[in-house]
Amino acid sequence: MQLPEDSAGIKWITVTSTPAIDGTPGIDKWGNRGFIETLIYMGREWNKEYPSSPLLINDISLRDGSTALRGTASHGPAGNEVDILTARTGNRSGRVTWEDPSYNREQTKKIIQLMRKNGFQRIYFNDQIIRDSLPYVKARAGHDDHIHGRRE
Ligand SMILES: [Zn+2]
Q1: What spacing in Å lies between the alpha carbon of 4 and ligand 1's midpoint?
Q2: How would you class 4 by CB atoms within 10 Å of its CB: exposed for 0-12, middle for 13-18, buried for 19 or more?
Q3: CA distances (Å), 26 to each of 60, 73, 151, in order?
Q4: Sign (positive/negative) of CA torsion 28, 103, 98, 42?
Q5: Extents of the domains making up the chain
Q6: Ligand 1 centroid – CA 50 distance (Å)
Q7: Apex CA 128: angle with CA 137 and CA 134, to 5°?
Q8: Which of 54, 72, 62, 8 is nearest to 32 (CA)?
């Protein structure tokens, strides 16, 4: 199932260096039905509180899941992993690192808590201050400007 582009509280973003991505909008926005439905639900919940700064959804999986999008065995055929960009200050769109002056820690933490509340078991993000307060968040190389989440 493809994540709808026009869901409340959700915005498609394509930020990747993966050769499998050919620029087709939404090519990396496929996942298993339960997972996509969870993201849609999260978007609706998010939209109630932050209607002017939707969740910025980057990679999920390709339609056939054939190619891992990041690293090895990541964003593959299970269709149950997502990259969500960090939040910025002033209700603007994200993709800033946790060290950037316009990084919005409070709102980024809210994104992570929303993911956790909706069953994400594995969450990677490198902001040490967030990891200190949310011990289920783990550091992983490359996760300075987005949160990676996996939901079984
Ligand atoms: Zn990821």
Answers
A1: 19
A2: middle
A3: 10, 20, 20
A4: negative
A5: 10-15+23-150
A6: 23
A7: 35
A8: 62
| Structure token pair of residue 75 | 């964003």
Output the pTM of the full model: 0.92
What spacing in Å lies between the alpha carbon of 83 and ligand 1's midpoint?
5
Residue 125's DSSP bridge partners are: none
The pLDDT tens digits of the residues spanning 42-101 come to 999 999 999 989 999 998 998 887 766 665 568 888 999 999 999 999 867 678 999 999
Structure tokens at 51: 């209607």
Residue 93 corresponds to which tokens in the numbers above?
């769109």
DSSP category for residue 70: S
Structure tokens at 61: 């999986």
Q: Give 60 Cα–ligand 1 centroid separation in angstroms.
A: 8
Cα torsion 21, 144, 43, 8: sign:
negative
The CA radius of gyration of the chain, in Å to the nearest whole number, is 14
Q: What is the pLDDT of residues 136-148, one digit of tens each?
A: 999 999 899 999 9
Alpha-carbon span 151 to 31, nearest angstrom: 11
CATH number of the domain located at residue range(s) 10-15+23-150 in this protein: 3.30.1380.10
